[in-house]
Write a structure and sequence with these properties.
The protein is an alpha/beta fold. It is 41% helix and 15% strand. It contains nine helices and seven strands. The strands form two sheets. It has a five-stranded parallel β-sheet with strand order 2-3-4-1-5, sandwiched between helices. Strands 6-7 form a two-stranded parallel ribbon. It is elongated, with a radius of gyration of 20 Å.
Length: 208
C-alpha cells in the first residue's frame, strides 16, 4: 500500500483543502489518473455516495471520494463507516474534510469521530492533515508555494507587506496574486511598489 487507506483533512479553508487533495493524488503516482467525486456531509448521504465509496477497482480505474463538510455528519453516519473503512480498496481513496472553524488554536473535530478506531488508526499512521488556514506562518508558506510554482520572485523587503495585504482566504489570495502577476515586468519580481496593487481587504462599500 503506497498511499493512505483514507485521509482526514482538517481545515476551514476550502481552497487549501482542494490543493491538499490535489497534492496527495499527484503524489500517489500510478499511470491511471484519479477521478474525483465530491459529496457533502451536511446533506443526506445518498446511495450514490455509498456506491462510490465501495466501488471495485475495474479496469485499473481509481476514484477519490471527497466528502466535504464531514463535521456535519451524525453519529449514525460515522458508525456506517466502520465496515467501509476496515479494509483497503486500491481503487478508492476516501477523503473526509472537516471544515469547522478552529477555536483557540484547536481544530474542530467531532468528539464522536475520535471514539472510532478508524480515527485512531489515521492519527497513528499520519493520515490526518491539519491546517488552521492562512494565519501566521500559513500565509507566508502559501505565498512561497504559489510563487515558486509560477517562477515569480518576491523581494525580502516586500514579503511581510504582501502577506499582510492578502486576504486570509486561499481562493481570494490566489486571485489577488494572479492579478498581481499580470502586472509584473519581465523579471517577474514582486517588490514594495507591486504590493500596493493588491486590493484592500475588509468590508467593501458596493455603492462606491
Amino acid at each position: 500500500m503506497s498511499r493512505p487507506g483514507f485521509s482526514f483533512l482538517v481545515c476551514p479553508d476550502p481552497e487549501l483543502l482542494r490543493l491538499r487533495v490535489a497534492a496527495l493524488l499527484a503524489g500517489a503516482g500510478g499511470a491511471e489518473p484519479w477521478e474525483r467525486k465530491t459529496h457533502w456531509g451536511d446533506e443526506e448521504l445518498t446511495a450514490r455516495f455509498w456506491q462510490d465509496l465501495g466501488s471495485a477497482n475495474l479496469m485499473g480505474s481509481r476514484t477519490a471520494v471527497v466528502l466535504r463538510r464531514a463535521e456535519k455528519l451524525k453519529a449514525e453516519d460515522w458508525e456506517r463507516f466502520v465496515p467501509a473503512l476496515r479494509g483497503f480498496n486500491e481503487g478508492v481513496w476516501p477523503f473526509f474534510c472537516l471544515e469547522g472553524e478552529w477555536d483557540r488554536g484547536k481544530a474542530a473535530i467531532p468528539k464522536i469521530l475520535t471514539k472510532h478506531k478508524f480515527w485512531t488508526v489515521a492519527e497513528k499512521k499520519g493520515w490526518v492533515w491539519q491546517s488552521r488556514g492562512l494565519f501566521g506562518d500559513g500565509m507566508a508558506a502559501f505565498v512561497r508555494t504559489w510563487t515558486q510554482e509560477r517562477g515569480v520572485k518576491v523581494r525580502p523587503d516586500a514579503l511581510k507587506a504582501l502577506c499582510q495585504a492578502l486576504p486570509e482566504d486561499a481562493g481570494a489570495a490566489a486571485l489577488e496574486l494572479s492579478k498581481l502577476e499580470l502586472a509584473l515586468g519581465p523579471d517577474k519580481t514582486i517588490g514594495p511598489a507591486e504590493v500596493e496593487l493588491v486590493a484592500p481587504t475588509g468590508e467593501m462599500d458596493f455603492f462606491e
